[in-house]
Amino acid sequence: xxxMSPGVPVxxxxxxxxxxxxxxxxxxxxxxxxxxxxxxxxxxxxxxxTSGEMGLMIMAFGIGSLVLMPFAGAAIAHRGSRVVSRxxxxxxxxxxxxxxxxxNWWLAATALFYFGGMIGAMDVAMNANAVVVEKSxxxxxxxxCHGFWSLGGLIGAATGGYLIVHLGVxxxxxxxxxxxxILLLVAWAEIETDAPHPEDEKQKVxxxxxxxxxxxGMMALFSMIPEGSVLDWGALYLRNELGxxxxxxxxxxxxxxxxxxxxxxxxxxxxxxxxAVMTLRICALAAMTGLLIAxxxxxATVAILGFTICGIGISNMxxxxxxxxxxxxxxxxxxxxxVATFLGYSGLLFAPSIIGFIAEHTGFAPxxxxxxxxxxxxxxxxxxxxxxxxx
Length: 391
Description:
Layout: H1 17-47, H2 51-79, H3 81-92, H4 95-101, H5 105-137, H6 142-188, H7 198-202, H8 211-241, H9 246-249, H10 251-274, H11 276-295, H12 300-325, H13 333-362, H14 364-370, H15 372-380
């Protein structure tokens, strides 16, 4: 009979229920987001929107996220991440149904504000809960959690177009809502419990005056703009400019999400092997290559290949930037991460709106090719990723 020696800690199981639960939260959030990609062409046709008008709609999504994210943080301080994760996930469920039944542009914009707000608020809560699980397990799980988000995005984008074609927009919304509800029910009881953090609410917010965190925030910004562009415009690009079917239009984000998910699950091992700077440089080159292939693609198949290669690169660029921001010398971790998070998510949420206005005059092909210039800037700043290795 084996007996533990006094004072020897009992190691947590490799996959405790709390880790499965938080991974399911990321999967739900990514699944709901991924289903938005193939719905965009139908959404535009139903409401009779131009690309520029759709850009304004997407801006409502971004505003909703940025408005409700701070409220989620304050709620976590009062109630803890378990309660806020449950509430925001529950409130997210009817989001796609609201978008489906919106009869005019202003109700559609309101629904997008709500949908984006719940996506963003749940994002804050589930990331906070993942940190709690990391501490309880004594090992890093954040990269794999984001891998589950990408996996959810892949499943949603890959199946959404098929469901719309065969079940209609209402059937699609009902099926995905039911599936997300089932996943939430499975995770509900096992979400990690944490105490409220009232001291976080009292902490004064201060902006750093040194350029370093802002430069790293720019790296996150320029890394996340292409991700938002593929999510919001990839399906429309494939259908309108490259002549693919509605069923296959979601494959742009699906291919992107597939490689992003795989590489995020492998991200920690890659960084341990090559270091943050080299990993970021390899990722940046892959992202540039993929965007150029997608932009100059002669058909939808080549474009999907380009987006898939781009996903390999984008996958670990943002985690490295966030890790570097949290390990800057002379700055509290929260200060650097707050700058990188704000700038990064601003690019993810608002840049697609601007891209919609540009594409209305130029088309999406030159836009995707031009986004490679942003990745070149990240490549030029890649030496700053050395701070991530301090983690």
